[in-house]
Amino acid sequence: MNPDQLRDASLLELFALEAQSQAEVLNAGLLALERNPAAADQLEACMRAAHSLKGAARIVGLDGGVRVAHVMEDCLVAAQRGELALRPVHIDTLLHGTDLLLRLGNPPDGDLDWAGHAGKDEIDALVTRLGALLAGKAVDDAPWAPAPAAPPAPAQVTPQATPATPQAGPDAAPEPPIAPVIAPMIAPVIAPPIAPAEPARAAEPRPGEPGGLPEAQERMLRVSADTLDQLLALSGAAMIEANWLKPFGNALQQTRRLQMRALQALDAAQVALAGGGTADGTAQARLADAQQLLAESHRQLSQRTSELEQYDHRTGRLSRQLYDRALASRMRPLADGLAGYSRMVRDLGRALGKSVHLELVGESTKVDRDILEQLEAPLAHLLRNAVDHGIETPEARRAAGKPAEGRITLNARHNAGRLVIVIADDGAGVDLDALRQAIVRRGLAPAETVARLSQAELLDFLLLPGFSLRETVSEVSGRGVGLDAVQDMIRQVRGSIRLAQESGRGMQFHLELPLTLSVVRALLVEVSGEAYAFPLAYVMQVLRLERGAIEQLENHQHFRFGERHVGLVSAAQVLQQAEARPDEDTVPVVVLGDHERTYGVAVDRLLGERILVVQPLAASLGKIKDIAAGSITEDGTPVLIFDAEDMIRSVEKLLSEGKIDRIRRGGAEAAPVRRKRVLVVDDSLTVRELERKLLANRGYEVAVAVDGMDAWNVLRAESFDLVITDIDMPRMDGIELVTRIKREARLQQVPVMVVSYKDREQDRQRGLQAGADYYLAKGSFQDAALLDAVQDLIGEARA
Is the pLDDT at 140 greater than 80, yes or no? Predict the structure, then answer.
């Protein structure tokens, strides 16, 4: 072999690539043969794959690989001739031989002598077993490998990214023999397989490639993932720069219109001068010259503006095509990430005494390679979960009137710019009664509550950390590390998961994910004068909230969203920035989260939806709290993209620590007519809510505090017309609160009403001596008594 041909890969690395490619053909073909042992096309494909690997192993000098591939080829040829009827025991052994050939290309611990030492016994055992099966001798019919096979990882042959090999499925055609003896090992590096209908041909030698290479349908190069990322970033920047031309062209159009108006004004002046008869010829001549010059400049500007518009159109189209092509280079068919799953499902089923078949639908659906990589583990877990928990044993399935073989379907499709994956099995589904008992047993909810939960609500408990219906631990399940980890991984790529089932007919997992992480549809907002973006995947709704609809409950701000109260926090507070004071009666609110965790985030201004090219932040910055990435809008404005999951955690932390600031009032305070504000202070939720509702129904704006300390902090930050307080409260009682209010110069004029169960005269005197303006006993006051007292102190609700 010419050294130039081995510049990027050693012989063993080339064999590893060949083994990876042909193993996909063998795995897919053998699984199909297990269901239909007489399928001629699959027998032919598997035989050719084994034959190619035998030749490749011989070139590399892997005698063990030659022996394994040779006996596999003999077995498949015998099946082709009708001399051997393939049974599950044959498929088990042939699959194990495929695994051995993969291991020979990537020996454990990099031991190049593995086949002759540590792996020799295993190779000998497989060759002996297949020889016995070929001879018709009886062998142990148990699965060859006790542990289920995992999806094979791509061969790691060089630091650079290897090209994706074409997917070989049950209907895929095998690669025909190629004339040059080394071609079976080189072909996966430089080109896809050649279709069987096309005879093998050798291309003319290319410069630097003596001896020639087989003609390929298209050339392929190895390009690092970082290079593709940089290309995508540059193409995104080019698209943004091209978009800048449009506003520039609009500005030129405006200038052209101004010139036209100037021309019209000059025409009118010339007519006026000519009609008046007072202007001399020199003035009219100069005016005519000015008209001529302005007309010429207008003509030239119109011409250049037209040229700019055409250039803008061409540049925009080319930059969009460049970006789309760069983005497409990151997109891969979902099949690239599903290699090995059919084998894994089959092997796991065999290990558990079940017959299971995986049906793949929509394998060609395109998805971003980064998402595809992060999907491999969640999909594998869901499929294992379906085999272990969902599919019944053959006996149980027959008793239920089902086929003995269970079926799991993985269906992928695009929908509204998102990737939708549905994993469904035809098993028994989850026993809802057992699930209810597990929820109660683990103390997650009382029995009476669990009894009222819907099926969807019950299934959501399966996504909780540490939750498992299995009481015993096996190699597959029961450790409580499962669906919650799947949910976390899916959320990391801005996706969601939902469970559904039909009792007795199986479980469904619905996954919805973005097609790419390079582009994000986002809602642009303004916070403290800066632009930020919420990924639309996390935005439930956008609304303008009346300030009067913001309620204070347990020192937290809430508003009604549908049938429930949702917590409200200012984006400025989360970002630790100064909050703007807009002169509006409504607050723009982004409702963020999902059905489990929903919060309202108040912003200063809504700027509309955009499609943003995601630009990673500099690695030297580390992880920035609440921020995921950056971008640039079409007009060149820099934008920070929120990390929605991180922001939700920040909001939850603020809520748990009781540090939520109230949304500051804007124009409502400055208006001539405003509602008077009352602060209700009581450690009893019942009393607080009773007083709040009474006052709010009368038209007053009401805030609440849970004790004297909380009230004191609120009073120092906000303005009120009246304070209504209890006496006995933790941290700071009412007497001390009244005393502090009356000592503070800014607050001395604020009336204070004490409402307390203590109705003895000495209690009244103590409150009044501290500075209270009114004392009302809780045991005797009626609704009217409280409202009359408030009106006596501060008047009607609206000033």
Answer: no
Give how far Cα 738 sits from Cα of 728, 759, 794, Å.
Answer: 13, 17, 17
CA neighbor of 558 nearest in space, from 424, 449, 660: 660
Is the residue at 692 inside a domain? Answer: yes
Same domain membership, residue 111 and residue 64: yes
In the chain, helix, strand, coil percent, each to 5? 45, 20, 35
In a domain, 650, yes or no: yes
Residue 395 has pLDDT above 90, yes or no: yes
Tell me which of 312, 329, 346 is where a domain ends: 329
pLDDT in tens, 338-361: 878 888 898 899 888 999 999 999
For residue 196, tell me if it sits in a domain. Answer: no
Predicted pLDDT at 75: 92
Domain extent, residue 705, equals: 672-794
Query: Distance of CA 264 to CAs 182, 267, 293, 298, 397, Å?
Result: 81, 5, 14, 12, 89
pLDDT single digits (tens) 728-776? 888 888 899 999 998 888 888 899 998 887 767 777 788 888 888 888 8
How many domains does one find in the chain? 5
Token pair recorded at residue 570? 């200012």
Q: What's the rounded Cα separation, in Å, for the pair 310 and 680?
A: 66
CB neighbours of residue 562 within 10 Å: 10
> In CATH, what number is assigned to the domain containing residue 762?
3.40.50.2300
Q: What is the CATH number of the domain that holds 590?
A: 2.40.50.180
Residues 446-484 as b or e (16 or more Cβ within 10 Å = b): eeeebeebebeebbebbbeeebbeeeeeeebbeeeebbe
Distance of CA 216 to the CA centre of its chain: 37
Task: Give the bridge partners for 755, in sequence order.
Answer: 776
Alpha-carbon span 478 to 461, nearest angstrom: 15
Domain check: are 762 and 679 in the same one?
yes
CB atoms within 10 A of CB 506: 23
Contact (CB, 8 A) for 80 and 44: yes
Average pLDDT, integer, range 5-22: 69
State whether 536 and 500 are in the same domain: no
Structure pTM? 0.54
Residue at 651 is within a domain = yes
Contact between residue 45 and residue 188 where contact means Cβ atoms under 8 Å apart: no
Calculate mean pLDDT across residues 251-263.
75
Phi, psi of 707 (to 5 degrees): -165, 180
Residue among 193, 213, 216, 197 at smallest CA distance from 205:
213
Distance CA 422, CA 413 (A): 9
CB neighbour class for 248 (10 Å; exposed up to 12, middle 13-18, buried from 19): exposed
Q: Which two tokens stand for residue 662?
A: 């109230």
Non-local (6+) Cβ contacts of 101 within 8 A are 19, 22, 23, 53, 57, 65, 68, 69
Rounded Cα distance between 693 and 535, Å, is 37
List the structure tokens of 607. 């700027």
In 10 A of CB 203, how many CB atoms? 11
> 344 with 491, same domain?
yes
- Cα separation of 605 and 525, whole Å? 6
